[in-house]
Amino acid sequence: MDSIRARIRDRYADVLRLVQRRATEVDRTAAFPHDLLDAYRNAGLTAALVPAEFGGAGLSHREFSCVVEAVARHSGALSLLLIVQAVGTLPVLRRTDFPRREELLTAVAREGRLLGFALTEPASGSDAYNLQTEVVPGKNGDYRLTGTKYLITNAGIAHAHVVFANLREPGIRQVCAFLVDADRPGFRVGPPNHLLGMRGVPTASLHFEGVPVDEADRIGGKNDGYVVAMETLNISRPWIGAQAVGLARGALETALEFASRRQILGEPLVDKQGTRFLVADLAARIEAAGALVERTSAMIDAGREDYTAESAMSKLFATETAMWACERALQLLGGPGCVAGNRAERAFRDAKITQIYEGANEVQRILVAREIVRAHRADPAPPTSSPAG
Length: 389
Ligand SMILES: Cc1cc2nc3c(=O)[nH]c(=O)nc-3n(C[C@H](O)[C@H](O)[C@H](O)COP(=O)(O)OP(=O)(O)OC[C@H]3O[C@@H](n4cnc5c(N)ncnc54)[C@H](O)[C@@H]3O)c2cc1C
Prior knowledge:
Low-confidence stretches: none
Helix content: 40-55%
Strand content: 15-25%
Number of domains: 3
Structural class: alpha+beta
Oligomer: single chain
Number of helices: 11
Bound molecules: flavin-adenine dinucleotide
Shape: globular
CATH topology of the largest domain: Butyryl-CoA Dehydrogenase, subunit A, domain 3
Distance between the termini: 36 Å
């Protein structure tokens, strides 16, 4: 992964410099960074995973994770912009029978079209089966979409959203996924949320009031919506892991810079044994988190299907590590760390959100335990030694 990291750092050096330069301002103003979006588009990063045949960058999952990590070292929000674009693209990429696939992937790659992924609702987050948004068949083979989505990233800037809703047909209640263009009648974006972290990339509610959609907009079969959502999140969770690793690295670097300069009782803070022990623990956990992300990304690149546990573990472990690492980094920085405008303080606020979105970490624990127990039941491994040793 280190060689991939180095290659990615070289290839996107200009973009990463811009990220570094703009991160503080974007967080302070929470204004959407159009210059960064242009830079991402020019570098092909808004079509990071789209294959070259459609005009995309065709990055592997390992490469994309490295991009996310490198951006998140300076700004969680600016990495979120890349992640959400990729999350919105994934269902279209994977569902080769989606009628609008070629049109959409080409538009993403060549016109820089932006996407969103709208699953969460006011009454349905972790409980993703409890969707209230519904699609009702119309008279001419079309459908009408009605409901509200909540906390949706890229709201107001995305040209289309992948929207999950219950299809109401006589006697049937099924979750469907539809690609809904933002210029359809009856679609409205609510006011932007003021966030703790990830500032600068908009989240808001999406309101659908009888929005027309048709068969050509449906991603997957009539009953496939939930599978589409879960297979997408299974793949995207390591990206949140990579984002968390980047945040943790950034916080550690900031703490090391400060502790090397700061004199306490006649010596640099970084030379105190307590600080050194902390640095060792931070570095070890960040590397372990990065290794989990890499392992999961490599499994996905290899075309394996059995990465649910790894995906959930990488998101769980990396985001818990990031929250802990950012908190410890702030402790090392002392009072100045609590003054807005430094990288560790920003990472601390950004890291909190990584524990919640893309499935709260309690949901990740449920997934990991389910997979581990299932695998154990299918094939209880013989103990390597007696319990007594
Ligand atoms: C900045 C930001 C961007 C977002 N972007 C998007 C987006 O683009 N698209 C989208 O669809 N959603 C998005 N979300 C929403 C996010 O995915 C949800 O907030 C998340 O899934 C959790 O759902 P919830 O907030 O409804 O929490 P709830 O489901 O109400 O859960 C509340 C808390 O309960 C705990 N919990 C949950 N389940 C269990 C359990 N089984 N046992 C014990 N404890 C549990 C967790 O700690 C959780 O945080 C975004 C959120 C934020 C903050």
